[in-house]
Amino acid sequence: MTHKDILLELQGPVALIRLNRPSKRNALSDSLILGLRDVFEKELPDSGVRAAVLDGSGEHFCAGLDLSEIRDRDAGQGLHHSRMWHAALEQVQYGPVPVIAALHGAVVGGGLELASACHIRVADETTFYALPEGSRGIFVGGGGAVRIPRLIGAARMTDMMLTGRVYNAQDGERAGFAQYLVPQGQATAKAMELALRVAENAPLTNYALMHALPRIAEQPADQGFFTEALMAAIAQSAPEAKSRVKAFLDGKAAKVKKA
Ligand code: 1HE
């Protein structure tokens, strides 16, 4: 059963997953993080969906770690807590379907770590990004040290954490947090539109983009080229790839249009 603070709605081939704890600005308690893990690990695989949208109820996408749960942890307990977040966000990044985050308001701390585990980010113009961990005397622990520099670079992340710098929606898009910037209140609609498009792709192509591309990008070039060749060979041999290429050659598939 879906967690009490998560709404899960199936809209055709797309699952809309909503953090639904607006009174606490969708702060991520341990139980909510584990609930998200379960949605991606146990509920989506059997749902038949081909893409997902993740957004938040209320004025903010997510205020990060639930600070009311911070308690004295020894080093070992702190390690396991962080590893629990890693395991949960791993299910988002390497789960069954591509995930598009629809962002608005605060996308801060663990909320930014969650957004950075998604595959595409759409932000509306109320969005702001911050890593208040620096001023709370803690450090990122939900995979942010790995994923956020891949979006914006280690220098920007270091600045954010050292100085408390907050990026607004426009600067955040330019820095690389989001791939799309839309007017206020339109992030979820835009993310749904993109998710429907993503859902039309051959599943093996989406699988390659989710699972092969990030790994290839981390490999030395020689190994990356080889892994790419293996993935390309597998993808092109699927019957769906053959029928899609044939449809184009027969003049029955859409051409690429000028942007
Ligand atoms: C919370 C949290 C939270 C709000 N944990 N309860 N994250 C932060 O350091 C960000 C902390 N939050 C904020 O800076 C602000 O709340 C917001 C900018 C996100 C929103 O401001 P606002 O004015 O709309 O809301 P608010 O009045 O500050 O908060 C409303 C309620 O939510 C209030 O509780 P109430 O019982 O007094 O109504 C707040 O206490 C509660 N609330 N944010 C717990 N984060 C894997 S490691 C990750 C490490 C981190 O993420 S550290 C960064 C944590």
Can you walk through the features of this model?
The protein is an alpha/beta fold. It is 49% helix and 15% strand. It folds into 2 domains: 6-199, 2-enoyl-CoA Hydratase, Chain A, domain 1, CATH 3.90.226.10; 203-249, Orthogonal Bundle (Lyase 2-enoyl-coa Hydratase, Chain  A, domain 2), CATH 1.10.12. A hairpin with a 2-residue loop joins strand 1 (6-11) and strand 2. Helix 1 (30-43) packs parallel to helix 2, helix 3 (110-117) crosses helix 5 and helix 9 runs antiparallel to helix 10 (221-237). It is globular, with a radius of gyration of 19 Å. The structure holds 3-methylmercaptopropionate-CoA (MMPA-CoA).
Tag the structure with descriptive keywords.
259 residues, alpha/beta, 2-enoyl-CoA Hydratase, Chain A, domain 1, Lyase 2-enoyl-coa Hydratase, Chain  A, domain 2, 2 domains, six-stranded mixed β-sheet, three-stranded mixed β-sheet, 11 helices, 49% helix, 15% strand, globular, binds 3-methylmercaptopropionate-CoA (MMPA-CoA)
Count of discrete domains: 2
β-strand amount: 15-25%
**Which blocks of ≥5 consecutive residues have pLDDT under 50?**
none
Contiguous helical run count: 11
Biggest sheet, spatial arrangement of strands = 1-2-3-4-6-9
Q: What is the strand tally?
A: 9
Shape: globular
CATH superfamily of the largest domain: 2-enoyl-CoA Hydratase, Chain A, domain 1
Mean pLDDT: 96
Bound small-molecule species: 3-methylmercaptopropionate-CoA (MMPA-CoA)
CATH fold type of the largest domain: 2-enoyl-CoA Hydratase, Chain A, domain 1
| Main pleated sheet | 6 strands, mixed
Distance between the termini: 43 Å
CATH architectural grouping of the largest domain: Alpha-Beta Complex
| Secondary-structure class | alpha/beta
CATH top-level class of the largest domain: Alpha Beta
Radius of gyration based on Cα positions: 19 Å
Provide the succession of SSEs.
EEHEHEEHEEHHHEHEHHHH
